[in-house]
Amino acid sequence: MPRPLYSSLEAMLRPDEIGRLLGEDVTEVHVSDFSATSAFSGSEFLNVALNGEPDPRLFVKRIDGARDWMARATSDDRCRSVTLWQHGLLDRFPLEISSAVLACAKDEQGHAILMANVRDDLMAQGVRMMAEDNDVILDAMAALHAGFWLDPALLDPDLGLCPPDELVDFLVLPPKRVAEMLQEPPSLANPGILQAVLEGWEVLPDFIGGHAADRVHAMVDAHPVLSDALSRYPWTLVHGDVRDANLAVRRAEVEGHGPRQVVALLDMARAARMPPALDLGWFMSTSWQTMCCDRADVIEGYRARLEDRLGARFDRAWWEPQLDLGLMANALFFLPFFAGVLHKYESAVDHPNHQPRLDALQWMSEWVEVGEARLRSLGG
Q: Cα–Cα distances in Å, from 150 out to 66, 94, 238, 274, 311?
């Protein structure tokens, strides 16, 4: 039986309920606005302090699915972050990962998720990643993927996982579709990314050249073939949004294993049953500013960890093609987005992000070239 949801945010935040969840005496709950919203979806956050303590021990994420463009784009009608908790999938995370989720509730037009406060341990955005943190994140990602490798539980429709073809559809946002999404009621909570993508399609040739931009458009048009090709390879649970804002690296006491580094992996809104390169590509694409080592080393570091966990189940015959296709799928999303950001905000050559963003556009363009060649070799 799935876990029940609290009927409201207020019911979930009652002192007696918080005390029951934490296994301690809670007499006072103080809720305050946290002055930030998710840069991607527009979700809102609340601080939750207990018993007069000065620092919030918990926080709440409030999700309005009707105004979340990512939820619309991936048909997340039931809120995957909630359904995966309800059906116990988060409880099966490996020791290397914590979901930080304590409870969930219905909340006005959407849902509210109560979590442990891990914000102090979140990866610093725009700050170069330490090699140790990079290793811990790759290890956690490999552990997650190996732990759910070809797991039949992921076939359960009640989980509400993002359908594989819709995750590819989400990554491939042609200009016409983006314009339609921006015009659909109700108004979106945070349309900035879509607006950047729309503008980015217009200026993309200025940054990667007309021939390369034509290749990107051709692969966008061929995305059903890409989706079909990806479906040929072994699948697992992919998080769908592995990036610094959703990653907290912290020391934690793991029962029976003592203190160890644990990654709190937040926000399962785009969780899907897909080949593992979809997560690896997203992590690399969003870490263009902070990656502490060469991209080839990141890929090899993840591959070695996954192979170590899968053993005989690992085979380069599927690893290499799904890698090429997965990296290309991510590049098809980020190329127009990055071009739009570069055009609108970072066009000055002395802007600190100007050259690094140009470099990122170049290697993503190369991902598309390699992915196109792989798709042709498969008869796509």
A: 32, 15, 12, 10, 14
Q: Decide if 6 contacts 14 (C-beta within 8 A).
A: no
- Indicate the residue type of 30: H
Query: 24 Cβ partners below 8 Å, 6+ apart?
Result: none
Distance CA 264, CA 119 (A): 10
C-beta separation of 329 from 226 below 8 A: yes
> How many other C-beta atoms can be found within 10 angstroms of the C-beta atom of residue 182?
15
Name the pTM for this structure.
0.93
DSSP state of 159: G
Q: Cis peptide before 352, with omega less than 30 degrees from 0?
A: no
| Residues near 9 by beta carbon (within 8 Å), at least 6 away in sequence | 60, 62, 105, 107, 112
Domain boundaries in the chain?
Answer: 9-377
The whole-angstrom separation of Cα 103 and Cα 313 is 35
Q: Walk along the chain (380 residues) and give the pLDDT tens digit of each residue.
A: 899 999 999 999 999 999 999 999 999 999 998 765 555 666 789 999 999 999 999 999 999 887 888 888 888 988 999 999 999 999 999 999 999 999 999 998 899 999 999 888 888 777 888 888 899 999 999 999 999 999 999 999 999 999 999 999 999 999 999 999 898 877 777 788 999 999 999 999 999 999 999 999 999 999 999 999 999 999 999 999 999 889 988 766 555 555 557 888 999 999 999 999 999 999 999 998 888 889 999 999 999 999 999 999 999 999 999 999 999 999 999 999 999 999 999 999 999 999 999 999 999 999 999 999 999 999 86
What is residue 250's three-state secondary structure?
Answer: strand
